[in-house]
């Protein structure tokens, strides 16, 4: 995983922390070093290339091979959203959420309090929960 283009101050450290969290939960050997064959790129920019709604502050997607194995992922984070600013109480949660999309994980059911809930709202936990961990396991991640 690596940052592409310009990123706000603190983004590299935030990415390192998010990758460490996901590595620990998933058992995948993830790193925030560019150059891996199965690279996930993270970009900070004013707009998203696609948007699910005008309220979307991030987007994560993956590309899979013909046998369903994820071969590339991409994350875009809006720089115009205060929630994405490194140091914001939600920046880590948003980044992990979008990285999980890049790993092929879908949203938790509406009303969920998991990190993969469809929307960020005050009071959501900042750590992945049971649904998130089960989703990683279902996606083929070896731990938990």
Task: Give a structural overview.
This protein is an alpha/beta fold. The protein is built from 3 helices and 4 strands. A 4-stranded mixed beta sheet has the order 1-2-4-3, with helices on one face. α1 links the parallel β1 and β2. α1 crosses α2. It starts with a strand and ends in a 6-residue tail after the last helix. 31% of the residues are buried.
Question: Keywords for this structure?
Answer:
globular; 144 residues; single chain; alpha/beta; 26% helix; 3 helices; four-stranded mixed sheet
In short, what is this structure?
With 144 residues, this protein is of the alpha/beta class. The chain contains three helices and four strands.
Secondary structure layout:
Layout: E1 2-4, H1 11-26, E2 40-45, E3 58-64, E4 70-78, H2 91-102, H3 130-138
Parallel strand pairs: 1-2, 2-4
Antiparallel strand pairs: 3-4
Could you tell me the number of beta strands?
Answer: 4
Distance between the termini: 22 Å
Radius of gyration: 14 Å
Structural class: alpha/beta
Q: What strand order characterises the main sheet? A: 1-2-4-3
Overall body shape = globular
């Amino acid at each position: 995983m690596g940052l592409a283009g310009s990123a706000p101050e603190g983004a590299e450290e935030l990415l390192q922390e998010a990758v460490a969290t996901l590595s620990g939960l998933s058992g995948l050997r993830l790193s925030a070093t560019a150059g891996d064959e199965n690279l996930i790129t993270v970009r900070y920019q004013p707009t998203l290339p696609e948007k699910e709604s005008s309220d979307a502050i991030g987007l994560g997607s993956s590309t899979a091979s013909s046998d369903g194995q994820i071969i590339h992922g991409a994350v875009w984070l809006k720089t115009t959203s205060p929630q994405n600013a490194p140091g914001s109480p939600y920046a880590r949660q948003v980044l992990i959420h979008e990285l999980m999309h890049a790993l092929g994980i879908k949203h938790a059911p509406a009303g969920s309090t998991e990190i993969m809930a469809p929307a960020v709202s005050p009071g959501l936990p900042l750590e992945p929960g049971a649904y998130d961990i089960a989703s990683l396991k279902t996606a083929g991640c070896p731990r938990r």
